[in-house]
Specification:
Elements lengths: L1 H20 L4 H7 L16 H7 L3 E14 L6 H7 L5 E15 L5 E4 L1 H4 L4 E7 L5 E10 L4 E6 L22 E6 L7 E12 L10 E4 L11 E3 L5 E8 L10 E5 H12 L11 E5 L2 H6 L8 E6 L4 H5 L6 E5 L2 E2 L3 H11 L4 E8 L2 E8 L11 E3 L9 E5 L2 H7 L7 E6 L4 H4 L7 E5 L2 E2 L3 H8 L5 E8 L2 E8 L1
Antiparallel strand pairs: 1-2, 1-4, 2-3, 3-6, 4-5, 5-6, 7-8, 7-10, 8-9, 9-12, 10-11, 11-12, 13-14, 14-15, 15-16, 15-17, 17-18, 19-20, 20-21, 21-22, 22-23, 22-24, 24-25
Helix pairs in contact: 1-2
């Protein structure tokens, strides 16, 4: 009799999961989301098929063809030229570049989210998306952001009634939750893999302060980028982005961008505005072992305030140098990336409650989340011409810019963006580089930099700072 009851309970739980995946009622969904181990071996025989049937039609294959400009040089294999100029030094030539990835439809009118690195290409980029029912459509780029590695596309044509996925709240995920990864690995066609959430708010693989990741052991391989990570209700919890692997294939360590950040970026792109990270007016650094010892912390965790802007939001809210932020809005934060992620997803116009350690005591501070002050017309310039900084967008080092780029510098002019087809990109300049001096002239602001780049030079002697290191370059005019 007992075994019969267990078997019936197992079937009821299995049916609940299936019905929740099909969207039948909040009650069933609540039952499906109970975090309990399977009650019997029979319960393990139930299928994910209803969830896949609901989610898979909204996951598309993304095919990209772009005409890119490269540079051939007789010095291409010379280590000296490689060091200073990278692979792009030499005479221009064009080639067709093709790439393959995945994407997720998030609205019935055909809005797609994917990774920036999936669709990145030259000016003449052609994007084609293929649905699971074999229909194909052209798509255009609505927005893309390298810092978050997120891009938004829009399907051209069609009925305007495409299958799509709803967003789940990624903050409600727990380590051990079951998830499915759907995408097009290695170009073999749409594939589904299952696994669990291995970790939350991972930042070790982050390339910028705007990135945190969900870690999963669901198999993710090349071509899965931009695909869906879904929960057991068939809702989107993340965009699969990268793997950690020494072989190029999945070893059970995959990373996805949390759905809360994806939704914020997509909503901003659809509304025609850029995603804005709140201006803190402070520089935050992840606590190291040495910092923990010096501050008498019992754990090597959190973000320490190392610089404050006198009239910035953090200073006005009451933060002090040496304060260690260990929580934001009830969530623990292990590093500076996690702090910025929590503030960004909370959103400008709101307040965040910070949990702070100050001189061994825990206090709470309410931080207003405001947009950074807009630069004036003489604070930012787009440079062009026959000089090393052609294609660079430069800015005076305003407090908000220093905050955004995590700069310690106060003197010079910083590169905030680099156009891919400009001379600056070919020479290897990148956002965050601080231009300190050209020849004998110290660079104080963008006006003086713009003026000096208009003057002809046989040889450009440039001093820049990158990551705290001073680099002296001599470049032919």
């Amino acid at each position: 009799m007992l075994s019969t009851r267990v078997h019936v309970l197992a079937r009821l739980l299995g049916v609940a999961v299936v019905l929740a995946g099909l969207g039948f009622g909040a009650g069933f969904e609540a039952l499906a989301q109970k975090r309990e181990p399977p009650p019997s071996r029979d319960a393990l025989q139930y299928s994910y098929a209803p969830i896949v049937k609901r989610a898979a039609p909204a996951v598309v294959n993304v095919y990209v063809r772009s005409r890119v400009r490269t540079f051939a040089s007789p010095f291409a294999n010379d280590p000296f030229f490689q060091h200073f100029f990278g692979d792009g030094f030499g005479l221009p030539r064009e080639r067709i570049q093709s790439s393959l990835g995945s994407g997720v439809i998030i609205s019935p009118d055909g809005v797609i989210v994917t990774n920036t690195h999936v669709i990145k290409g030259g000016k003449e980029t052609e994007i084609r998306v293929a649905l699971s029912d074999k229909r194909e459509f052209d798509a255009r780029i609505v927005a893309q952001d390298a810092k978050t590695d997120l891009a938004v596309l829009k399907i051209e044509g069609g009925t305007g009634n495409f299958p799509y996925l709803d967003f789940a709240n990624s903050d409600k995920l727990e380590v051990g939750d079951i998830v499915l990864a759907i995408g097009n690995p290695f170009g073999v066609g749409q594939t589904v893999t299952s696994g669990i959430i291995s970790a939350l708010t991972r930042t070790e693989m982050a390339q910028s302060d705007s990135q945190v990741f969900i870690q999963t052991d669901a198999a993710i391989n090349p071509g899965n980028s931009g695909g869906a990570l879904v929960d057991m209700t068939g809702r989107l919890v993340g965009i699969n982005t990268m793997i950690f692997s020494q072989t190029g294939g999945s070893v059970g360590i995959g990373f996805a961008i949390p759905s809360n950040l994806v939704r914020l970026y997509a909503d901003s792109a659809i509304a025609g505005r850029k995603i804005e990270r709140p201006w803190v007016g402070a520089q935050l650094e992840t606590v190291t072992r040495e910092m923990a010892d010096g501050l008498s912390l019992d754990r090597i965790s959190g973000a320490v305030v190392t610089r404050l802007t006198s009239d910035g939001p953090a200073s006005k809210a009451g933060l002090d140098l040496g304060d260690v932020i260990i929580g934001v809005d009830g969530f623990e934060v292990a590093d500076s990336h996690s702090v910025h992620y929590r503030l960004t997803t909370r959103g400008i116009g709101n307040k965040s409650r910070l949990r702070v350690i100050r001189k061994g005591k825990i206090i709470e501070i309410d931080l207003p989340l405001v947009a950074a002050p807009k630069p004036g017309k003489d604070d930012v310039r787009n440079l062009s011409g026959n000089h090393p900084f052609d294609g660079a967008r430069v800015s005076n080092i305003l407090p908000s810019v220093a905050d955004e780029l995590n700069l310690n510098e106060t003197d010079g002019v910083v590169i905030v963006a680099v156009r891919s087809d400009g001379i600056a990109a070919r020479l290897g300049f990148q956002p965050g580089d601080v231009i300190v001096q050209i020849g004998e002239q110290k660079i104080d602001d963008v006006v003086s930099l713009d003026k000096i780049t208009r003057e002809p030079h046989r040889v450009w002697r440039v001093t820049i700072k990158r990551g705290g290191r001073v680099m002296n370059l001599q470049l032919a005019g």
